[in-house]
């Protein structure tokens, strides 16, 4: 390719990238528009300056391409006199694009916009092409040598960091998408009603909460794995007080060789439970799997954002997922980005005690048939059927439990806003009573499916009273609640002859 052709491609990349960025910014809208009914003053002023400057540069290149490119080359050459500027620009210019793509709108309104990110990436490509074209041969060679040295040093540094993280923070034992990290020990200071002020939270060799599995006598013991979301995980509860631990203690009164491992993972819906049943249970091969399900599947419906699609979404694939699955460094960075910019609640934080808040304004219109709000119900049913089939294929006994709640359909809860600690209060005007009615639909669906499939199901929602004695918020158990759940489940298993 001739020198002029290279310069033409370089300028085309720079200008097209700048134009794409401008179009993305022009397509944005401010919360408080003051200019043209669309932009705030803070956005309109720099946007206007950017548009005028870009128009002037474009006009200069169209009028006198050669002279304009010489001016650009002179600017690049001048930057080259500053130590490390060009090397860092070439090596790290893609990082802002990656950062904004990962951070998404939680960092800035424009972050995560596809057009904006593509424009920045094209700009970076134009800059990379412009640098060698703007320098003399001797300086190009020196730049290449320095970039090579810095690149090798960066790769070695990242590799060392990866090795260190794998040693200090080992990843999931069984599956990259299911965070069962072994030998964790957390000491939590807890300020929640009905809970001890100090909780010891540990995991065993498999990343489950509970005692070490009796591997040498596995086939002789009664082995149970509990699966669910945060209501099974019991993150803020001491190891000895979770309902899984209570279940083990109760069953050992009849059969001392009983082991229960807590595989609850906060935030998991039945989509996550399907992965757990498919990829982990066949490896562990316990006698019984107990699943407490419903809460996180209901949340997809109550958010009003196409929740069924969220549950249905298949396991992530492609190059980004393969990188995330194989790199502990990438996983740590991804979790940090989600917690810092993604607006997600990080489980290392303590919770403020739950306070029922009055419903602000009128509740959204609730149809006479409440199932119209259960947008994720069909996929929930499909996932339950898949879990049952996977349990049969693995040769384990599958037991389900419906999800109880502090909320109920009473006059008091009809005037209370449905709110969760992991999302902004009042994100959707829905009462706590309405959410309970939706949850009740999911519970009834679970009971119906289990009856059809002849699978044991404990109607826990009918056992645990709607009382603050048993819940520290809407769904999560206090120590008294966990005690009641563990005892009720143990009695249910004994009654069904499953604990013998």
Q: How many DSSP helices?
A: 19
* Broad shape: elongated
- CATH superfamily membership of the largest domain, which one? SGNH hydrolase
Order of strands in the sheet with the most strands?
Answer: 4-3-5-6-7
Termini separation: 79 Å
* Top CATH class of the largest domain: Alpha Beta
**What is the percent of helical residues?**
40-55%
The largest pleated sheet is described as: 5 strands, parallel
Overall pLDDT:
84
Q: What is the architecture of the largest domain at the second tier of CATH?
A: 3-Layer(aba) Sandwich
Descriptive notes:
51% of the residues lie in helices and 7% in strands. With 500 residues, it is an alpha/beta fold. It has two domains: 3-168, no CATH class; 185-495, Rossmann fold.
Short key terms for the protein model shown above:
single chain, 500 residues, alpha/beta, Rossmann fold, 2 domains, five-stranded parallel sheet, two-stranded antiparallel ribbon, 19 helices, 7 strands, elongated
Give me a quick take on this structure.
Helices cover 51% and strands 7% of the residues.
Q: What are the SSEs and their pairings?
A:
Blueprint: H1 3-26, H2 41-63, H3 65-79, H4 85-92, H5 95-103, H6 114-134, H7 137-168, E1 185-189, E2 198-202, E3 222-228, H8 230-233, H9 243-252, E4 258-262, H10 270-279, H11 281-284, E5 288-292, H12 295-302, H13 307-312, H14 319-326, H15 328-341, H16 377-394, E6 397-401, H17 411-414, H18 432-453, E7 457-458, H19 479-495
Parallel strand pairs: 3-4, 3-5, 5-6, 6-7
Antiparallel strand pairs: 1-2
């Amino acid at each position: 390719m001739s020198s002029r052709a290279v310069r033409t491609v370089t300028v085309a990349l720079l200008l097209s990238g700048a134009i794409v960025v401008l179009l993305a910014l022009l397509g944005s809208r401010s919360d408080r528009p003051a200019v043209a009914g669309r932009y705030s003053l803070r956005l309109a002023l720099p946007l206007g300056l950017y548009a005028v400057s870009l128009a002037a540069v474009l006009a200069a290149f169209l009028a006198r391409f050669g002279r304009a490119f010489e001016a650009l080359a002179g600017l690049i050459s001048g930057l080259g006199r500053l130590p490390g500027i060009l090397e860092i620009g070439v090596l790290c210019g893609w990082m802002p694009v990656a950062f904004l793509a990962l951070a998404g709108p939680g960092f800035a309104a424009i972050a995560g916009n596809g057009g904006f990110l593509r424009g920045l990436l094209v700009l970076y490509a134009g800059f990379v092409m412009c640098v060698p074209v703007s320098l003399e041969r001797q300086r190009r060679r020196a730049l290449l040598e320095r970039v090579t040295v810095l690149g090798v040093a960066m790769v070695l540094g990242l590799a060392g960091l990866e090795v260190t993280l794998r040693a200090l923070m080992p990843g999931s034992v069984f599956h990259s998408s299911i965070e069962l990290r072994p030998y964790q020990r957390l000491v939590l200071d807890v300020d929640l009603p009905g809970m001890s002020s100090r909780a010891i939270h540990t995991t065993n060799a498999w990343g489950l909460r509970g005692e070490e599995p009796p591997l040498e006598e596995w086939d002789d013991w009664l082995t149970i794995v509990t699966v669910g979301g945060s209501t099974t995980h019991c993150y803020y509860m001491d190891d000895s007080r979770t309902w899984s631990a209570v279940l083990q203690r109760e069953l050992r009164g009849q059969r001392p060789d009983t082991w229960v491992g807590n595989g609850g993972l906060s935030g998991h819906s039945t989509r996550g439970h399907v992965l757990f049943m498919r990829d982990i249970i066949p490896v562990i091969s316990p006698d019984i799997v107990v699943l407490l399900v419903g809460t996180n599947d209901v949340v997809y419906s109550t958010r009003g954002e196409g929740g069924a699609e969220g549950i249905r979404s298949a396991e992530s694939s492609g190059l980004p997922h393969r990188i995330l699955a194989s790199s502990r460094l990438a996983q740590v960075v991804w979790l940090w980005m989600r917690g810092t910019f993604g607006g997600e609640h990080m489980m290392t934080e303590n919770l403020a005690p739950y306070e029922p808040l009055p419903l602000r304004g009128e509740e959204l219109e609730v149809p006479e048939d409440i199932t119209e709000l259960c947008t994720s119900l069909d996929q929930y049913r499909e996932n339950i059927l898949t879990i049952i089939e996977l349990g049969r294929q693995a040769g384990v006994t599958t037991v389900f439990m419906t999800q109880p709640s502090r909320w109920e359909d009473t006059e008091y809860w009809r005037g209370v806003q449905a709110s969760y600690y992991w999302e902004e209060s009042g994100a959707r005007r829905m009462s706590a009573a309405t959410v309970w009615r939706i949850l009740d639909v999911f519970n009834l669906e679970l009971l119906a499916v289990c009856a059809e499939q002849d699978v044991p199901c404990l109607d826990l929602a009918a056992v645990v009273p709607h009382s603050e004695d048993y819940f520290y918020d809407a769904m999560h158990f206090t120590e008294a609640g966990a005690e009641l759940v563990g005892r009720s489940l143990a009695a249910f298993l004994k009654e069904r002859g499953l604990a013998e």
